[in-house]
UniProtKB/TrEMBL annotation:
Keywords carried by this UniProt record: Isomerase, Pyruvate
Pfam families named in the record: MDMPI_C, MDMPI_N
Annotated GO CC locations: plasma membrane
One annotated GO molecular function: metal ion binding
Species the sequence originates in: Nocardiopsis gilva YIM 90087
Protein name, entry field: Maleylpyruvate isomerase family mycothiol-dependent enzyme
Residue runs in coiled coils: none
Xref: NCBIfam families: maleylpyruvate isomerase family mycothiol-dependent enzyme
Ranges for domain MDMPI C-terminal: 147-250
Keyword tRNA processing on entry: no
Top-rank taxon, per record: Bacteria
Length: 266
């Protein structure tokens, strides 16, 4: 039930990038990405590689403000061989810089946790989810290891407690209210994995914990599919059941993902 260690995250950035790179040979870089419809495959890969490089620059410089965002051009003629090497280099440099800095290095981040450890974790799961996007674009199967997937869901739950996720906004339905609880349960893990999450939206701010409990809405399915559903990605047909107030789950997922819209436009 603990988060992935800093060293594990550094290793996973490279490992997840390497898994993604196995999908590049023979792929059409101009192919659309169904889960990121504004991008083709080459643009998606550029986005991920740019994210790795931007964070590497931030950590290396111990930056106190965000680095300039790279603009993903309307590219249709990327060379897969060049992109493959470029992605490998960027992931390796990021992991090396993170290790050299150490988990407690103070750097700019998008949250109050101003540490290199935040970026190690964030870039691990950024790479995982975009690996899923690439797999979808090329028609390949996708899965992710249990420990990594559990931590990715935990990270999402943490983002869902931020004020941006629940603050009242004009024209946006309120997230908090009486009786508003969610239970997310992975059905393909052993009991010791504790792959169940209870989200409580009844108080002044959202809270979450790993727990089994009845809730206004229950979402059940394989762990990888739950992760994909939370991130708004397609799941395998019939693998996820939503019982109870499905509209509450949709609202929570949308509000908790406030940070994705800005990030994926960078």
């Amino acid at each position: 039930m603990t988060n992935l260690s800093f060293d594990r995250c550094c290793a996973e950035i490279v490992a997840q990038t390497d898994l993604l790179r196995t999908l590049i040979p023979g792929a059409d870089m101009a192919a659309p990405v169904p889960s990121c419809p504004e991008w083709n495959l080459g643009q998606l890969l550029r986005h991920l590689g740019d994210a790795h490089r931007r964070v590497e620059t931030t950590v290396a410089a111990r930056a106190t403000e965000p680095a300039c965002d790279a603009q993903v051009a309307d590219v249709t003629d990327e060379d897969p061989i060049v992109l493959d090497a470029w992605l490998a280099e960027g992931a390796a440099r990021l992991a090396q810089t993170l290790r050299a800095a150490g988990p407690d290095a103070v750097v700019w981040t998008v949250v109050e946790d101003r540490s290199a450890a935040f970026w190690a974790r964030r870039m691990t799961h950024e790479t995982v989810v975009h690996r899923a996007d690439v797999a979808l674009a090329v028609g390949a199967e996708f899965s992710v290891g249990e420990e990594v997937a559990l931590d990715a869901v935990d990270e999402w739950m943490g983002f869902g407690t931020r004020p941006e996720a629940f603050a009242s906004k004009p024209g946006v339905p309120d997230l908090l209210g009486p009786g508003r609880t969610l239970h997310v349960h992975a059905t393909d893990t052993a009991p010791q994995a504790a792959a169940e999450w209870l989200v409580d939206l009844t108080g002044p701010a959202p809270t979450w914990r790993r727990a089994h409990a009845k809730a206004a809405v229950a979402v059940r399915g394989p762990l990888t599919d739950l992760l994909m559903l939370i991130y708004g990605r397609p799941t395998r047909n019939g693998t996820v059941d939503i019982l109870g107030d499905a509209s509450l789950f949709d609202l929570w997922r949308q509000r908790s993902g406030f940070w994705l819209e800005a990030e994926d436009k960078e």
